[in-house]
Specification:
The chain has about 425 residues and is of the alpha/beta class. It contains 18 helices and 13 strands. It has a six-stranded mixed beta sheet, with helices on both faces.
Length: about 425
């Protein structure tokens, strides 16, 4: 599978101020596979240190944390040479050994010429507990396959190129094909194991079974969350969030019989595990948007649209036959899709606008930062007449860039209204920053 993270990994490899790299991401998004593939392609040798399966390897970090000593011992245990500049040293499941996380600082200080990467599941919980090497490591985030990566994975490279190209140049025939592929993606999602299962037998049902297995594995992880959170409450919130996409989160709606503080604790833990994502409301009058992020007014996204489908309990037979993508599950899948694509394209920073005033509430689904300008983003099936909140936003913040409206329509630009209609499948390409 082609993963776009490879481009970022190459930039890290070639960087003059390179530090040990930690690849973050939820369980089963492909962190281990991506780093192994990168090591095989870009280095003469790859040294993999699995700190979860091998207790002997964890014992290496019981003594001093001198980088040269650790490398020397690893060469003996792994029976391979570790050569700076030629070997990629990969600490997998590093959360199983907090002292290995601490040791990354010494690799940076004592062996900066050696390429060192690390990955792990539930890493954020381990980072809170360990003596973390602040300022001596770099981070990248890995997400499920975006739509273009999915198209590459199923062997349709031309379609992948099309969705990353100029949406104004896409023909009606190709537009219709991409819509059909996107409908399948809505239900299969981007979890690598689910995509692989679908490909093996061309069966969505097989992908659905994988979604069930992944959801159960996440539930099994609840016991590992720190500080401890009521697992029944976690399960309630985990399931309920899939039914709240596009809505402002009210803790009381996430589980019956639990206090708001308990529900908040569960929600925060799921966000820390990267199973869910908080999307705060902000003031779009200036950058950075995060400086005005509201702690009280926020929406959420699920990690993956396929998992969202499974957890929501939506009737697949009824929803899949709908022709309008933005009508599936009352539009929530379309909003999840655009948000999921933008999390990748906006490098993990995603916000929205919400104004609550007497007799004048308004909301814009997302905000995109492109070339230093804030662009309002809406996911709509209606025509311009239904975009009241968007017009209000543009009138209130004239210094912001043109609005983007993702819909089933082909590309259409309305410069006099500062609005561009875009096909929903182009969400990643047109909001990509940097």
């Amino acid at each position: 599978m082609l993963r776009f993270i490879e481009n970022d990994l190459q930039l890290w490899q070639e960087g003059k101020r390179r530090k040990p790299l930690i690849l973050r991401g939820a369980r089963q998004v492909g962190k281990t596979w991506s780093l192994k593939e990168f090591g095989k392609k870009r280095f003469e040798s790859l040294a993999v240190v699995d700190l979860e399966r091998n207790q002997l390897l964890r014992k290496l970090f019981d003594g001093d944390l001198k980088a040269a000593r650790i490398c020397s011992d690893l060469e003996v245990i792994l029976q391979q040479k570790i050569t700076p500049g030629k070997t990629l040293l990969f600490f997998d499941e590093i959360q199983a050994c907090p002292r290995a996380i601490t040791a990354l600082r010494y690799f940076y200080e004592e062996m900066p010429e050696l390429h060192v990467v690390a990955a792990g599941s539930l890493l954020e919980f381990a980072l809170e507990e360990s003596s973390f090497p602040v300022g001596r490591v770099q981070f990248l985030n890995l997400y499920p396959l975006c739509f273009a990566e999915y198209l590459e994975a199923i062997g349709n490279a031309p379609a992948a190129s099309a969705v990353q190209g100029n949406p104004a140049e896409i023909s009606p025939a190709v537009h219709d094909l991409l819509r059909e592929e996107l409908k399948r993606y809505f239900f299969i999602g981007g979890m690598p194991a689910a995509v692989k299962a679908y490909l093996e037998n061309n069966s969505m049902r097989d992908a659905f079974e994988v979604h069930k297995e992944i959801a159960e594995s996440y539930r099994m992880d609840f016991a590992k969350y720190t500080p401890k959170v009521d697992r029944f409450c976690l399960n309630s919130v985990f399931t309920s969030l899939s039914q709240q996409i596009g809505k402002q989160i009210k803790y009381a709606r996430l589980g019956e019989g639990y206090s708001n503080p308990t529900l908040k604790k569960a929600f925060d833990a799921l966000c820390l595990a990267q199973v869910a994502r908080r999307i705060p409301s902000v003031d779009p009058s200036g950058l950075p948007l995060g400086a005005s992020a509201s702690a009280k007014t926020f929406k959420s996204l699920m990690l993956d649209i396929g998992l969202m489908r499974y957890l929501s309990g939506m009737p697949n037979d009824i929803e899949y036959v709908k022709n309008d993508l933005l009508a599936i599950y009352r539009g929530a899948m379309a909003e999840q899709f655009v948000g999921q694509e933008m999390l990748v394209s906006q490098q993990g920073s995603l916000y929205y606008w919400n104004r609550q005033e007497k007799n004048s509430s308004a909301e814009v689904d997302y905000l995109a930062i492109l070339d230093g300008k804030i662009h309002p983003v809406e996911v709509k099936s209606g025509a311009t007449g239904s975009l009241r909140s968007l017009h209000l936003f543009l009138a209130s913040y004239p210094e912001c860039g043109n609005a983007m409206v993702f819909s089933e329509r082909r590309y259409a630009d309305l410069p006099e209204q500062k609005i561009t209609f875009l096909p929903i499948y182009s969400a990643y390409a047109v909001t990509k920053c940097g």
